[in-house]
Amino acid sequence: MNALNFLRQRRSVPSRLLGEPGPDPAQLQAMLAEAVRVPDHGKLTPWRFLAIRGDARHALGQRLAARALEKDPAVAPAVVDKDRARFSQAPLVLVVVACPVPGHKVPVQEQLLSGGAVCFALLQAAQALGFGAQWLTGWAAYDPHIQRQLGLAGDEQVLGFIHIGTPAEAAPERQRPDPGALLTEWQP
To answer: Coil, helix or strand for 94?
Structure first.
C-alpha cells in the first residue's frame, strides 16, 4: 500500500508556484529514465523531449508575446504579459513532443496516448524526487508558428509543457471524482 499512498499524494503544483532549485542533470536523467518506461506498442519511441531552462525560458516567452500580438494586435496588454511570463517561473520546462510513425501497424492514436503517458510519468517522477510539476499546454502548444520556433518537424506536435521546480507552498487538494460512480459492468 505504500506505493498506492504515494500515488494518492500526486498533485499538480501550479507553475507560478515553482521556483529554484530545479532538477540537476542526474535528477533530470532519472526522471527521463522513468518516463520512457511507459507502454510503447511496437517499441516506436514516438516522442522526444526538449529542455527549456535559464534564459531560453524568457526568450520563448518573448516569442509567445510577439506571436500573440501578431495574431491579434488588439490583444489586451495583460494577456501579452501573461504569455511573456508563461515559462518564467519553473526553472525547467520539459516539452514532450509527439513524433508519430505514420503507416505503422500501431495506430497514431496509440502512439499519442503513449506520449500522454510519458507526460504523466514525468509528473510522478518529479514528485518522487521531491519536486513539484504541472502539465500544461495552452494555445502555444497548438500554434504552428511556435511549433516551428521550437524546432518541431511538420508531423510533430507538442503533447505537453511539463513545468518542474521546487514548490513555494503545498499544492492544494481538489475534489476528485468517485471512481465507483464511473465504473459499470459490461454485460453481454
So the answer is: strand
Q: Given this model, what pLDDT does residue 1 score?
A: 62
Q: Crossing angle of helices 77-85/55-71, nearest 10°? A: 150
pLDDT computed for residue 170 by the predictor? 87
Cell triple for 23: 532538477
The reply to whether the predicted model has a pTM over 0.85 is yes
Q: Which long-range contacts (CB under 8 A, 24 or more apart) does 179-183 make?
A: none
**How far apart, in Å, are the Cα atoms of 141 and each of 6, 23, 82, 138, 147?**
30, 23, 15, 6, 7
**Which segments in the chain show pLDDT lower than 50?**
none
Task: Indicate the SS3 state at residue 60.
Answer: helix
